[in-house]
Design goal:
With 290 residues, the chain is of the alpha/beta class. The strands form two sheets. The protein has a five-stranded mixed beta barrel. The protein has a two-stranded antiparallel ribbon with strand order 5-6. Strand 11 and strand 12 form a beta hairpin. The longest helix is centred in the C-terminal third of the chain and has 17 residues. The protein starts with 28 loop residues before the first strand and ends with a helix. 41% of the residues are buried.
């Protein structure tokens, strides 16, 4: 059955609506960055750059690094943007734009996020890195999809009980990373394998109080002392759970690499976050090219 034009919007030049790229423009190895200015920070290390485009906050560079083809794409901030980017990437490789039908043979993408994050644990200091082995979404975006058979429901139940989670905020969801990708970083100096929490906002949803009272002022503390079979929540950011959830449903492999630029447990912030991000980019590219 063909997919209606209202559901998959294709631009007059044959590119997908938001990303403004055509199927031939992207690699099967994808790097996500939030900040559009960080795209060049990654692609400057490429040996070649064959394609560049930008529409709104979505900037894409495709090229090669040590003989391997990569696309680096800026997603902007938040799980809602991930919903756009990941669905459109999947459409580019798994839907025939001429017939508007799902291809009989599907392509699996390798998707790795290079992002910034705040640690919830005192022993994960600023300027270190977290490779997210697990992630929990506090944002509710993935509940628009059918995930009950693929999410980690036992961990979800334990978290809900531990935090006395308010059901009015929706049910948290838990997914695991692509093991092949996370294994590349488990023994790398400065990297921690972690359990990353994804919030739907930067201030109240992450426990920051300026002028507005928040629903659960103790939530961050509840998260930093939550454990499940030895797993503790390591850090807090705004994209990882949506990436893992959609990648799992669509048959892609995903990993989130987090540069820890803040430590919420002890109130510290990196003296040079740009240096930390640059280090993450260099290590990440090197390991992914192997």
């Amino acid at each position: 059955m063909d997919i209606k034009s209202s559901e998959l919007i294709i631009n007059p030049d044959g590119s997908v609506y938001h990303l403004n790229v055509k199927p031939s423009d992207i690699a099967t190895n994808i790097i996500f960055v939030g900040d559009q200015n960080r795209v060049e920070k990654v692609s400057q290390h490429f040996d070649t750059i064959e394609f560049t485009t930008q529409k709104r906050e979505f900037k894409t560079h495709t090229g090669t690094y040590k003989g391997k083809r990569f696309s680096v794409i800026s997603t902007g901030i938040g799980p809602d943007n991930i919903d756009i980017v990941l669905n459109e990437l999947d459409a580019l490789v798994n839907i025939d734009f001429e017939t508007r039908e799902v291809k009989p043979q599907l392509t699996s993408l390798n998707i790795v996020r290079f992002g910034t994050s705040g640690s919830l644990q005192a022993d994960i200091p600023v300027d270190s890195f977290v490779a997210s082995e697990y992630t929990i979404g506090l944002d509710n975006m993935m509940r628009s999809y059918v995930i009950e058979d693929v999410s980690e429901t036992e961990i979800e139940n334990a978290f809900i009980a531990h935090t006395n989670w308010d059901a009015k905020k929706g049910r948290p969801y838990v997914f695991k990373s692509g093991k092949e990708l996370s294994d590349k970083f488990k023994d790398v100096a400065g990297f921690h394998l972690g359990f990353t929490a994804t919030a739907g906002g930067f201030y109240g949803p992450q426990g920051r109080v300026l002028r507005l009272a928040i629903q659960d002022p103790e939530l961050n503390h509840k998260m930093d002392n939550f454990t499940y079979n030895g797993i503790t929540i390591s850090n807090l950011e705004m994209e990882t759970a949506a990436i893992y959830g959609l990648a799992t449903l669509l048959g892609h492999k995903a990993l989130s690499l987090n540069a820890i630029i803040a430590n919420r447990a002890n109130g510290t912030f990196s003296e040079d976050p740009y240096k930390t991000v640059d280090k993450l980019i260099k290590i990440g590219l090197e390991k992914l090219a192997q």
